[in-house]
Amino acid sequence: MASQQDGDDTLDELLKDGARIEELPDEDEDNNSATEMNGPPFPGKHLQPKRKHDVPPWMNSATLGLFHEDSQTPSTEALAKTAAECLPFLTLEDTQGLPLNSHGLPHLRRKPHADFLRGCLGDLPAPYAAMDASRPWLFYWCIAGQSFLDEDVSEYKDRLIETVRPLQNPGGGFGGGHGQYSHCACTYATVLALTAVDGLEVVDRKAMWHWLGTVKQADGGFRMAIGAEEDIRGAYCAMTVITLLNLPLELPPDSPARKAGLQSFTDSLGNWIGRCQSYEGGIAGAPNNEVHGAYAFCALACLSILDAPHVSIPAFLDVALLTRWLASMQTTPEGGFAGRPNKLVDACYSHWVGACFTLIEAALPTPADKYTTAKEGMWNKAALVRYLLTCGQQPGKKGGMRDKPSTRPDGYHTCYSLSGLSAAQHHHHYDTQGSTRDDGGSGRLLAAFNWRAERGTAEEMKALNVDEEDVVELVHPVFVLRFEAVEAARKRFEGGGL
Ligand code: FPP
Ligand code: K
Ligand code: ZN
């Protein structure tokens, strides 16, 4: 039998799977004769690691078996280019002049990032006119992002309220700009930004309830706007708004979904979300579409609003298949996450995929004794932290965080990089003692308010190679806000009513 070749650890790891190996031809035999079948280490000639250009180290085990040695595609080239641009930073060969922490990694640049986010809220240069419809997003990313760095954001309250007042439509909901139709994403972003500054009094809750009734669909899902696409973002955005504002779950009398027999915003919703899971395990924006990590977050967070995660997630999703898919989104060598298979690492998925692990770990059968240290769990937290600190931070005076080194920083990537850091650094768990429904009063769904978090310990921060000043605040895994802000919204609307 052939001896194990001079080691490629990745391949050795991959080929532990004995059943598959036994069917493979002996790679020592050029003619691939099948005479010796008891344990050759490599699956056929095309993956022999001796040849210089075989098996680039950044190809992970999930992709490894799929490529022929000569197969070059735009995807393989883009993956190689991204690995090459990140490696000098990951290895600290190039530290970009950033101040280093006691473990040799760049410090989290708190002050420059906070300044960057503050700057994004001022007057913007002309090219930003194209982003007019995304203004509420900018408010949310930049205000919430600052709060994740423990900046006081209450000073934004009056200005934010006056800025979003004209974006609210008389029929309910918020548009992206003055005179624009209401849209679930703009409404979600506005409500989150207002929650961050405790400014929800500006929202017309009754009109909001009516408008949300018009986007609820007969099949259980939600459209993004009247006549717009029905997708999982709509479901998560709508249920977030309903829960934070404590709107009645009962559909308004004029909701078109009532004609199909639905009575509540939650009717058929879990089933509709379940239909978005594909054979790969990931979650698509709508049934039968392509899966994406950002949609996995929307699905898990929406289910975590509907009920306790260990109840609602396994009720509608194949948890094992989804976990496997999520784990395969962590890229090597970068250590960050990609949004979909064979695509590139991008810091924003530190949140969209990273927070999925927080939610799905709470869905495991025995929530109480799951992973108890930051080193344990289903994903490599130290690798994500390393990617964000070495590749994700813009050097120089400007600050801000970015998708990858070749891109510019922006509010979106800064906010979601910081949220991803929180998922990696802290403990989040679901308190199974909390009630999931305000049965004595308003009927509000309470599951999403039962999340608790504790800061990672000093020992854990050491294992993640961060110092105290590189640690972000605790971020709520469902609402992506500081816990204090979520609690204030819960209390403000405790009584219900419109
Ligand atoms: C592909 O972009 C991205 C998607 C298909 C989904 C994006 C959705 C979100 C980021 C968030 C939605 C959530 C809410 C709450 C509105 P791409 O092709 O540029 O990126 P990729 O190559 O990384 O997939
Ligand atoms: K992208
Ligand atoms: Zn991104």
Q: Please give the count of helices.
A: 20
Structural class comes to mainly alpha
End-to-end separation in angstroms reads 77 Å
What general form does the structure show? globular
Biggest β-sheet description? 2 strands, antiparallel
- With strands numbered from the N-terminus, the spatial order across the biggest sheet is 1-2
CATH fold title: Glycosyltransferase
Characteristic terms for this protein:
single chain, 498 residues, mainly alpha, Glycosyltransferase, two-stranded antiparallel sheet, 20 helices, 2 strands, 39% helix, 2% strand, disordered N terminus, binds farnesyl diphosphate, binds potassium ion, binds zinc ion
Q: How would you describe the overall organization of this protein?
A:
The protein is an all-alpha fold. The protein has one domain (74-123, 130-492): Glycosyltransferase (Alpha/alpha barrel), CATH 1.50.10. 39% of the residues lie in helices and 2% in strands. It is built from 20 helices and 2 strands. A two-stranded antiparallel sheet has the order 1-2. The chain is globular and about 65 Å long. The relative contact order is 0.11. Residues 1-56 have low confidence and may be disordered. Residues 346, 348, 403, 413 line the site of zinc ion. The site of zinc ion has 4 residues, from loops.
